[in-house]
Amino acid sequence: MYKYLKTAYQFGTLGGVLSILSFFILSLIYPDPTNLNLVFGYLVTPVALFLGIKFFKDYTNHGFLSFAEGMTIGFVTYILIGLLSAFGIWSILLGVPDLFASIQETKWAVLDQNKDVIVSQVGLPSFEATKLSLQEMSAWDVALNDGIWKIIPGMFFSIIISIILRRNPN
Question: d(Cα 122, Cα 107) in Å, to the nearest integer?
């Protein structure tokens, strides 16, 4: 089982560390790095998945890859990326409370700016629920959201990459 997970651990850890580093660097440049970090995650996650599955196929499994093997490598890789990213961002936000306050202020400004559009599209009760949700938002909510948005696309990318790279012995 370890042979399946060795490359997944390596590339999952790499992707998670890059996500944390991205959040940290973006937080130095922007008051709310969350949206740009999600975009960065949409680039890092498929690259880490592809490299993890490809390295397993080429260097561990002698050029062969079943769909199940690809999905196993992919699963461990994107779960690691999501978990490391979430816990890393949570740690940063706990260590720098001003950053969390800045993120919250930016989200309030966006909500206030778009009040008319939001109310016209989803109604006043939904807008009020969003305001309440934003008031109760914690650093863990920001971090968990980032982690989830690394895991969900990772699922789909794993399926596609596993199908593309699949090669069974004849």
Answer: 18
Please give the Cα distance from 68 to 122 (Å, whole number).
41
Rounded to two decimals, the pTM is 0.92
- How many whole angstroms separate alpha carbon 30 and alpha carbon 92? 15
Helix 34-55 vs helix 2-29: angle between axes, to the nearest 10 degrees? Answer: 160
Give the DSSP letter of residue 57: I
> Residue 45 pLDDT > 70, yes or no?
yes
User: What's the rounded mean pLDDT across residues 42-48?
Assistant: 96
Q: How far is CA 148 from the centre of its chain?
A: 6
123/113 Cα distance (integer angstroms): 16
Closest CA to 7 of 73, 66, 67, 71: 73
Going through the chain in order, the beta strands assigned E by DSSP cover: none
Give the Cα separation of 160 and 168 in Å (integer).
Answer: 16
CB 81 within 8 A of CB 42: no
